[in-house]
Amino acid sequence: MSTLLRLHDVHKSFGGNHVLTGLSFHISKGEIVGLLGPNGCGKSTVLNTVTGYCPIDNGKIEVGGQIVSGRAPHEIAKMGVRRTFQLPSMPSRMTVAETVMAASTGRHGLVSTLIRSLATVELERQTKERAAQLMKELLLDKVAHLPATAISGGQKKLLGIACALMEQPLLLLLDEPMAGVHPNLRAELVETLKRINRQGVTLVIIEHDMHFIAETCTRCVVLDKGRTVADCQPAELENHQGVVEAYLGKKPSMRLEAVGVPA
Ligand SMILES: Nc1ncnc2c1ncn2[C@@H]1O[C@H](COP(=O)(O)OP(=O)(O)OP(=O)(O)O)[C@@H](O)[C@H]1O
Ligand SMILES: [Mg+2]
After folding, report:
1. Superfamily of domain 3-93+163-259
2. Whose CA is nearest to atom 6 of ligand 1?
3. Could you read off the pLDDT of 38-61 as tens digits, one per residue?
4. Which of 241, 238, 236 is nearest to 224 (CA)?
C-alpha cells in the first residue's frame, strides 16, 4: 500500500509547552487508523498541523508525497484532506440541511454557458441527493429543518461528519466522532465509516472509546508526550508496554480495561 500521510520528526510548541516532540508516523492509502493517547498528549494538535490550522516549528508533513507544512487550510482541503473538530462550531443562520449542502464546493470545469447551466442544475440535484443520503445515514434527517445551532452536541458531531463527507475526501481525519454520541449509534457509525473506507476514503480517527476503535480500526498509533509510543493492531493495545505506561504511568500490573481498553 502506498503512503498517503507521513509525519517526519514534527515539533510544535505553544510558548514553553513542547507538545509535539519529534513525532513520526505514516498512514497508508486505504487504512483506518486510530490515533490514541491520554488527554493533552497532542492528538488534536496533530490534526491541526496536518490540515494547516496550526504551523509546525520543525519537521515535515507530506500528503501523497507533497509537503503540506506551511500551506493554508483551504489548499490542503483541495488536496482531498477533510476533518472534523473535537468541539464543532455551527453556522448561526443555517439549517442542518443547508449546512450539509454548503459543505459541497460544487466544482465543475465545463466551458459553454448552456452546458454550464445544465451542469449546475445536475450538480444541485446531486448535491441535494448526497446531502439527503448522508443526513439519513447519520440520523440527521429528522432535524434537517432545524437551525444547526439548535441541535444537540452529539448531533453536531454527526453533522460535522456529514459535512466532511459531502465531497468524498482522500483522507478524512475525525476528532472524537463518538464523544457525546449515544452508544446505540456506535454500530451504525462504525458501519458508515467502514463503508466510506471501502469506497476509497482513508481514515484517521482520534477516539477515547476503545470499543469503537477495536471495531473500526485496522491499526493504532499511540502518542505520549508528543511522540509515537506504539504502532500496533487494536488487539495488541492491552499488552503493549508503551501504551500501558502512557495511560497508567509505570504500573504494568494494572490492566488497561480499567481505562476502557477492551480485553
Ligand atoms: N492553540 C493553542 N494554544 C496554546 N496551547 C495549545 C493550543 N492547542 C493545543 N495546545 C496545548 O497543547 C497540548 C495538547 O493539546 P491537544 O488538544 O492536542 O491534546 P489532545 O491529545 O487532543 O487532548 P484531548 O484528548 O483532551 O482532546 C495541551 O497542553 C494544550 O493546552
Ligand atoms: Mg483533542
Report:
1. P-loop containing nucleotide triphosphate hydrolases (3.40.50.300)
2. 14
3. 999 999 999 999 999 999 999 999
4. 241
